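Before a colleague's protein record goes any further, I have to sign it off. Would you go through it and say whether the fold makes sense for this chain? Take the sequence as given and treat only the tokens as open to question. The record follows directly below this note.
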Amino acid sequence: MPSPVYVRDAQERPLLPTSSAYARVLLDSGKAQRVPHPAVQLIQLTHPVIEPATAGVLLTAELHAEHADLLLVTERSGRSIVLHRFLLDLSLSSSLCRKPPSISAILRGVQLGLARLVPITHFIIHQSDDPTVKEQLAVHTGDLGSLVASLPALQNEAVFRPALATVWVSEASRAVDARNGASYVVRPPSPSIGAVARVALRGCTTTALITGLKGASCSIQVPVAASQNFITWEQAVIPIGALQRVWHPTEVALLPLAEVGRG
């Protein structure tokens, strides 16, 4: 399934995602505008939505040693579908905090950050070595029994689909002014730890996470591959002048990750 287009209304409230085809209709008719984002397609409607369409949206997390495999799933036309897959680096998320956070705190922070993109109604986690054991972290109204029952099949289908490398950066980016609750604040290339940047690296343009600052240089990490046990990052130190664009996420940093597999 093609990646969804995330939608928010004129008051920046997240709505259910739509297809690329319908997003083009909204853009061409002047009913929506594109919102810059480093990793997903996002549009904002030019009008508020008073009574938005509702559907159950489940975020599920499968815990591994150093990362968690997250899926956003929902039902459409009676079928369970995967909206997006995220690989959350627990180790890197923890390293960006002054004090080591609990896994639960990281997961709740990521849930909050992703909820700025899509209205998540349910969140469950389970250990990878026992997928039958599920801990329900947050539940709102609605019954998603059929969707939960379809999770094993959805997880097997999703394991080879493109994913986004995900890092919880709430504490690292706490000093950044996030106006109106926006999930990302776009500014001229002014780096901060936890920011996502479009950078020029060895003759190519790539998306990286800023993990350190020193003088006129910054340390970056680029997600290049993932296995069942960890995410592989390429590290580099570049001049701040190589930053082409900087996004300051308020909760969670999302970066494209091309190569995904079981390892």
User: Anything to note?
Assistant: The longest helix spans residues 103-114.
